Structure formats: structure tokens, C-alpha cells
């Protein structure tokens, strides 16, 4: 068993793979933060979607009026969905890219720019900053993912 | 080729990795089940969103009245989206955690609690159970994912 | 370091893993395309959801009337969400399947049918084609994913 473990540990000891692991966890934690921000706005704005969530406010009309949409809640939810749409491709393509044997410095550059772009995107969406802040930060993360996908296909293509 | 295969098979032979594979597949199958439940409610409640889906009910008004939202359909869809938001982080972080060389018993504990929490969450959402059932089951899965993320960063951090 | 690299490269040199990498990147790029199609329809239909996105059209009423939903935009968004719901399970289950040591020809068959089904699904959704085109293409991709999940559990099950 320890021989197998050693082999697995070699994967996590590889510097490119460690860099991938680090930035994958960072962007996933950032995405998970959106759940907490949604919950925060739902509670402070009293804007719920499930009847059972408003039971704490009593029954009848007083609870019912908390079943509503709120612009701030919807904004965080759109940011969360945009994260899913962009971080899922990064997770899959980034993993394969890390296994395709890129230079450490090149890999770090891709991972850092992607993570940075997604963090800027979140601020641009939630504050919100005037456009094209959000559009540009989205485009940077998108482009980095395409570049990594190109490298994976060039290295691994097997149709 | 068989030498390469042997190396790959070592990964799937590792007990921690096998445990990850098992629970990752379980939560993904659970998530996929939401599609079937949505389809079931759409058909039994006659609540569709695409005009081409109602063609079986004839043309004109008789079909058009089936283009509507239904509370049960929307509830399953919210459960499905919540699965995506929480199972995607588990897939990515759990894989890296499994490769970070944790104790088998510790890893099993994390995977089992996460999978159990997501199954309880689905029942709490669909029945629905009174709060805080759904909130608590969500928080348990969320916390387990954060704990695994901490372990990955402690083992692999490479900024 | 080069010895570790060699081991990693063995993973990407394995033909089944290369096939997985190729088709995973293809379906992820296809999913990412949905973002561009959404942006295209939002701009040509002038149908935005964030006030800051309409600032280019001036202020006041002239910009405000572009804050609206459009059937074509909503259709692409539904296709995008359906991609997320189905491609996430493929990414996770397909990776574990590729590591479970399947025959190359069997693995290729699964990956090709899944990718083909999702591409047909997108055309069926966006044109749109009459049902059951979209339903069938969805079911084919779903079934292939279930078959791979069965193989992973048979090979790796460790509860």
C-alpha cells in the first residue's frame, strides 16, 4: 500500500500539478463564497423563494411577503452561475493541461491570470463596476482557458 | 502499452482513490436523477418551457396552456442547481484531496458525510422538510468540502 | 523533476487517457461556445439583464427598455444549463472510467457517442428541431454516462 501511496504522492509532489491544485482550490473556494453571499442577501433583504424558508417569520401574509425576488440576490446568483459556466471548463481543461507537461512558469502564468480574472469578475459583478470591467475580466479568463485547451489538444489529440 | 496500463491501474487500485471514485460516482448519479425527476414533474404537471415540447398536445391554445411554470418543477430545478453548485467543488477538491495522501479512514469519513449530506439535502428540498433540515444538510456538505480544501492547500500549496 | 515529469507524461501518453482528454476538451469547448452565442443574442436582440450593460445605449428610458428577456437568449441559456447538468457528470465519471482500464475501442465508442449526442442536442435546442430530437440526443448522452458509471463502480467500488 505504501508503494502505491508513494506513486500517488509523486503526482501531488509535481510542481505543475501542485500549482494546478492550489489555483483550482482557490477558484472553487471563491465560487463557494457566492453561496454565503446569496444567503446573506436573502436574509438581510428578506427575499426567499421556498415557503418553508419563511416559516421563521410566522405564518400567513407576514411570512408570504418575504417570498419575493430581490435585485441584489439575483445579481449574486447570476455571478454564481457565471462562475459555474467558467470554472467548470477551467477545472477540466486545467487538469489535463497540467498533465500535458507544460513549463512550470508558463503553467503558473495561466493559472494566476485565470484566478485573478475570476476574482476581478466577481468584484465587477457585485459592486457593480461600470462595463467593460466585467466583460473584460470574463474575456481574460475565457481566453486563458481556450489557450490551455489548445495545448491539451496539441499534446493529446486522439479522436 | 500494458506497462502504461499497469501504472494507471495502480491509481484505481489505491484504496483512497477507489473511495473517491465510488462516492464521486454516487453523488453524480444522484445529481443526474434530478433530470429524471424534473422530466417526470414536467410531464405529469404539463408544465413545459419550450414550445416544441408541447406539440404532442396539438397546436394552438390547447398546447399553449402547457407552456407554464409549475412550483414542483421549479423546486426540483432549484435542487438540481444547488447540486451543481456544491457537487462541482466536491469533485475538484475531493480529487485533489484523494491525491494528497490522506489516511483511508479519514478520507472515507469525509466522502461518506458529504454524500450522506447531499442525499439528505435532496429529500429535505423535495418533500420538503421544515427548515433547518435543508439548511443544515447543505452546511454539513459545505463544511466537509472546506475541510478537504484546507488539507489540499496545506499539502500542495504552490502559488 | 524530470523523473516526475516522465511519470505524469505517461498518463497523458496512455491512449485511453488521451482519448478522454480529447473528448473532454471538445465538449467543454462546445459548452463554452454557449457563452458566446448568449452574448451574440443579447447584443443583436438588445436584451440585457444588468443595468450597467445597457449604459452604452445612453441613460434613462432609452437604455431601460433594453433590460428585458428575449426568447432566443433564454433558449440559449437553457441549452447552456443543460450542458452543465450533463457535461459535469461526464467529466467526473469519464475521468474515473478512463482510469478504470477499459479497452481503447470501447472507451472511444463511449466518448464519441457522448460528444456526438451533446453536439446534436445543441443543434436540436437552438434551431430548434421538432421533438423527440432534443429528448433523444439528451437520453443518448445520459445513458452513455450511466454505462461508464456502472463500469467505474464495478471496478473501483469501495464504500
TrEMBL record, chains A, B, C:
GO terms for molecular function: glutathione transferase activity. Its main location: endoplasmic reticulum. It is found in: Endoplasmic reticulum membrane; Mitochondrion outer membrane. Keywords: Acetylation, Endoplasmic reticulum, Membrane, Mitochondrion, Mitochondrion outer membrane, Transferase, Transmembrane, Transmembrane helix. It catalyses: RX + glutathione = an S-substituted glutathione + a halide anion + H(+). Its EC number is 2.5.1.18. InterPro entries: MAPEG-like_dom_sf, Membr-assoc_MAPEG, MGST1-like. Pfam families: MAPEG. Homotrimer; The trimer binds only one molecule of glutathione. Belongs to the MAPEG family. Conjugation of reduced glutathione to a wide number of exogenous and endogenous hydrophobic electrophiles. This is Microsomal glutathione S-transferase 1. The gene is Mgst1.
